[in-house]
Amino acid sequence: MRYTFMRRVRRGGTVATLCATTFALTGCGRTGTESNLSQTALDASMRFADYDGGTVPGGPGAGQGYAIGSTATAEAIATLNTDIGPGGAELPSGSGTVATGRAVYAAKCALCHGANGEGMAPAFPRLSGRDPNAEGFKFASDPKLPHTIGNYWSHATTLFDYIRRAMPHATPGSLTNDEVYALTAHLLAVDDVIPDDATLDATALRAVKMPYADRFVPDDRRPTAKK
Amino acid sequence: MKKIIQPAALTRRDLIASAVGTVGGAIVAGLPTALSGQSALSARPSDPVHALMHLGGTTSPLGARSAFEAPTRAPFGETTGSSYTPLQDLAGNITPSDLHFERHHAGIPSLDPARHTLTIHGLVDQPLSFTVDDLKRFPQVVRQYFVECSGNGRGAFRDPKPELTAQKVAGLLSTSEWTGVPLATLLREAGVQPAAKWFLAEGGDACLLTRSVPIEKAWDDAIVVWAQNGEPLRPAQGYPMRLLLPGWEGNINVKWLRRIELGTQPWMTRWETSKYTDPLPNNTARRFSFELDAKSIITSPSAPDTIPTPGWRAVHGLAWSGRGRIARIEVSTDGGTSWTNAELLGESQPKSTVRFQYMWEWKGNEATLLSRATDEAGFVQPTRSALIAERGLGTDYHFNQVVGWKIERSGKVLFHGET
Questions:
Q1: Domains defined along chain A, listed by start
Q2: Residue A225: which of B138, B182, B374 has the nearest Cβ?
Q3: Nearest CB to B394 within list A85, A136, A143
Q4: Distance CA A85, CA A204 (A)
Q5: Do the chains contact at B208 and A217, CB–CB below 8 Å?
Q6: pLDDT tens per residue across span B352-379
Q7: Closest CA relative to residue B94, chosen from B202, B209, B6, B176
Q8: Of B117, B182, B394, the CB nearest to A48
Q9: Predicted ipTM?
């Protein structure tokens, strides 16, 4: 196989600084090292932003590639790539009603998740329910409050993506897109996110807003050691 | 001439290795009759005195543990299960590969390395696929890191029962020496476009597990690994290749890695919304809380041990942090009233476990042993009550509360989780 090696590497702003400060010790960015000891230091602490074709002795040189691997064709990628992002741009054609979804659920999902989405702990999680005590995203206060699609999930697109790739548990990937739309509609309707007479297709699913989507926050953990 | 010991002279325990002896007897069938006819071959004594007088076992193609050692994982569930590492049976840092904890969500696939590939696509100049043999042609790195499930310790946090063992409290933690190729090397081959800020990693298991990762992790220390502790990955650890994101919660170290897609934003997969988010008391939940916090556990003594007699003993255990090296490990023998620095056994490696020890003389009285880790980023292991105050009893992941063991006057060891 042949392909053109393209040099287009995004480097973080800290890389050059780190490289400069460790250069004397590690021989950062050079072919070969001063001693085996310095190679050891390099392995333990060096960021891979610095680990390019010039790092390992005998290599093609800084900024050069190894030309290993095979070209992935668009067709091959299309077979693998089924993910649906939060914007739903990748959603396929097809549609499903809540009523259809109710029937598919009873036939293919209820065995593990229960007739009403109550789940079977611990292997098969609860899916549904809007317990008034669990409204308001108060989950930190009580581990018994049930997390369900309606009271916890942030994006409706996630439901379509996960059902299509991973469900049913024993026969994943066996559902048609219409069945996935229908199941998504059923589960959203049971949790009062969409009306019972709704039909979901790509456009309708993209428009669904989950009740507690705004409750997710970035990681803000901070050091706690006394100075 | 050596005296032949009659089997009748040996106790039942002395003959514990007799099953091994039978196998050995079959293998040495070609030996002269005078040797192979000895009773020792079918009933090999295990007490040191008698063992001197009998021929030992034969060479073998695959090693086995001593018949006197039988560490086992503790499995829970089946195709959505986990299996806990017996931390109390381990020494040093490395977890033997057959005791590495398991956690999977749709069973363990059996993947043919000749047909499995990793495809890198999305915001790259040249989409590429790599077989394991391709990966092995790249320069390799060898590094020691722990992997920990971010739900490790949930039971001990929510319901700290006295009968809990080290295996149950913290057994979703294991440490290996990993061999692989930096993900950065593979991304350079494909040529990452400047707009790429995140990548999606997808596993080749039945649930096609997907997680979104900030691309900065690839330029830092992410590895696509194909070997663990001197041999190819075990199936439950992602054979033939997995993603290793040092220090980050276990779930994101995607096993059976088959696809990496470069994109501009996270995908909001099931594993970063419904699961692996941390509810907080202000009615929000943290998302993308990747790093595992500084943590430690004493593994000896631990429940259900009974300390047989008063006297000196080495108290030892493991400490680790997803944010770098362990800077300090303290031990308390009085339930947390006073703390003393323990010894780190060997140099602390970043994002790996380090074993610590503290010499303690048990005088036959009640005592409570605790350990507390501080990492080089300045994070200190909190008490359980401090963690509850900060995150609530209902928080779901990242349980790094101080835990330990209560020693009763009888020497019986019980879990002490209400710190």
A1: 1-71 (no CATH), 78-215 (1.10.760.10)
A2: B374
A3: A143
A4: 15
A5: no
A6: 999 999 999 999 999 999 999 999 999 9
A7: B176
A8: B182
A9: 0.89
> For the segment B247-270, what is each residue's pLDDT rounded down to a tens digit?
999 999 999 999 999 999 999 999
Closest approach of chain A CAs to the CA of B112, in angstroms?
17
Chain A contact for B331 (CB, 8 A cutoff): no
Of A211, A201, A117, A206, the C-alpha closest to A157 is A206
Choice between A39 and B150, residue whose per-residue pLDDT is larger: B150
**Can you identify the CATH homologous superfamily of domain B79-286?**
Oxidoreductase, molybdopterin-binding domain (3.90.420.10)
In angstroms, the separation between the Cα of residue B286 and the nearest Cα of chain A is 5
Q: What is the mean pLDDT of residues A141-167?
A: 97
Alpha carbons B270 and B249: distance in angstroms, whole number: 15
Q: Which residue of B has its CA nearest to A126?
A: B274
Chain B nearest-CA distance from A98, in A, is: 21
Lookup: tokens for B331: 């031990």
pLDDT band (50, 70, 90) for residue A17: very low
Look at A51 and B184 and tell me if their CB atoms are within 8 Å. Answer: yes
Window B:83-122, CB contacts with A under 8 Å: 105-106, 117, 119-121
CATH number (3.30.360.10, 3.40.50.360, 2.60.40.650, 2.20.25.10) of B295-416 reads 2.60.40.650
B274 contact residues in A (CB cutoff 8 A): 125, 147, 149, 152-153, 158
Structure confidence at residue B14 (pLDDT):
57
How close does chain B come to A175, measured CA to CA in Å? 13
Structure token pair of residue B307: 């300390």
Task: Give the start-to-end residue ranges of the domains of chain B.
Answer: 1-70, 79-286, 295-416
Which residues in chain A have Cβ-Cβ distances shorter than 8 Å to B193?
A: 8
Q: What pTM was estimated for this model as a whole?
A: 0.89
Structural tokens at position B105: 């969500």
What B363-366 contacts at long range (C-beta under 8 Å, 24+ apart), as own/partner pairs, is B363/B310, B364/B310, B364/B409, B364/B411, B365/B409, B366/B406, B366/B407, B366/B408, B366/B409
Of B141, B261, B280, the CB nearest to A140: B280
Q: Is the pLDDT of residue B103 over 70?
A: yes
Q: Smallest Cβ distance to B200: which of A52, A70, A83?
A: A83
What tens digit of pLDDT does each residue of A100-153 get? 999 999 999 999 999 999 999 888 999 999 999 999 999 999 999 999 999 999
Alpha-carbon distance values, A194 to A17, A125, A135, A190 (Å): 52, 22, 17, 8
